[in-house]
Design goal:
Elements: H1 2-6, H2 8-33, H3 38-47, H4 49-63, H5 83-106, H6 112-135, H7 149-172, H8 176-180, H9 184-211, H10 220-249, H11 254-278
Helix pairs in contact: 2-4, 2-6, 2-7, 2-9, 2-11, 4-5, 5-6, 6-7, 7-9, 7-10, 7-11, 9-10, 10-11
């Protein structure tokens, strides 16, 4: 658990960034499926500041992990050969596009066509960003991390957390009911459902894989035992977050349900990231 607490800034970064970035996937779907009135579209544009700020707070948290924040620039030197450098590159592309979009949206400079085009690009970059976060620590020297399951987890967190956050933004701007009326419900629940499956499956398979590993100095089974509390919290919180989204999509006090869903998504993803860092098993003689 000490290792997870040491990595708290990165855990916060990956939690906030995945959920905030994923919201743009849900918002892109909403705008492609729904013809909002100009007034509603402008209200949603302004509410887009919510996921934007969430992502930016995540970036700020990541800098607290560095002894010297200026060292962040050195990471770019490994682009193409370092998973961490690749993550930073994709993160930077997404962040720049997101900030430009947020400024244009908040100042009312987006037409219907430009809004859809921008959101389509942001949705693709958000998915790439989530995958890059999952691959950032894919190192042969850490067998518990060197697998597809961290990528599945991060994509799952972005899809589920993003669906919840995106739905909340629509509700905050009074556009949620409009979106539901034209079939957004099935799409956003499908997005969240796929995210839930990926997140839970990724966690479960990572735990199973770690449980069978042993190095000269550490036991995967011991680490799994330390992580089980966080595993249970993560799964319960993510399942209930999906349940609250389902309730909101079916007319059950949407604003309150979505606030609860966002809170539980944050708790669930953060607990899942703690699991990831707890299951750090460095290379040695493992069998």
């Amino acid at each position: 658990m000490d290792a997870a607490l040491h990595e708290l800034p990165l855990a916060l970064f990956t939690t906030l960034a995945s959920i905030g970035a994923g919201a743009f996937i849900a918002l892109a779907i909403a705008f492609f499926k729904t013809s909002f009135t100009e007034e509603k579209a402008r209200a949603i544009d302004k509410a887009t500041l919510v996921p934007t700020v969430v992502v930016l707070v995540g970036f700020v948290a990541a800098f607290f992990h560095l002894a010297n924040p200026m060292n962040a620039m050195n990471v770019f030197a490994g682009i193409g050969r370092s998973p961490l450098s690749n993550e930073l590159c994709v993160a930077s592309l997404f962040a720049v596009a997101m900030i430009v979009y947020a400024i244009l949206a908040f100042t009312g400079k987006l037409s219907e066509g430009s809004r859809k085009g921008f959101l389509a690009v942001l949705a693709v970059l958000a998915a790439a960003f989530a995958a890059a976060m999952g691959m950032a620590y894919s190192l042969p020297t850490v067998p518990t991390w060197d697998s597809p399951w961290p990528v599945a987890q991060m994509l799952g967190y972005a899809l589920l957390g993003g669906a919840v956050m995106g739905a909340f933004v629509l509700s905050f701007a009074d556009g949620f009911d409009d979106a539901l009326a034209v079939g957004f419900k099935g799409t956003v629940l499908g997005l969240a459902g796929v995210g839930l499956v990926l997140a839970v499956l990724g966690l479960a398979m990572m735990v199973v894989g770690a449980n069978g590993l042993q190095t000269a100095i550490a036991s995967g089974a011991v680490l799994v035992g330390q992580a089980m509390g966080c595993v249970i919290v993560a799964i319960i919180a993510l399942v209930v977050a999906f349940g609250l989204l389902f309730k909101a999509c079916n007319g059950g006090e949407s604003r309150g349900s979505l606030i609860g869903a966002v809170a539980l998504a944050l708790v669930g993803v953060l607990a899942g990231r703690f699991v990831f860092y707890i299951l750090y098993l460095s290379v040695g003689i493992f069998f």
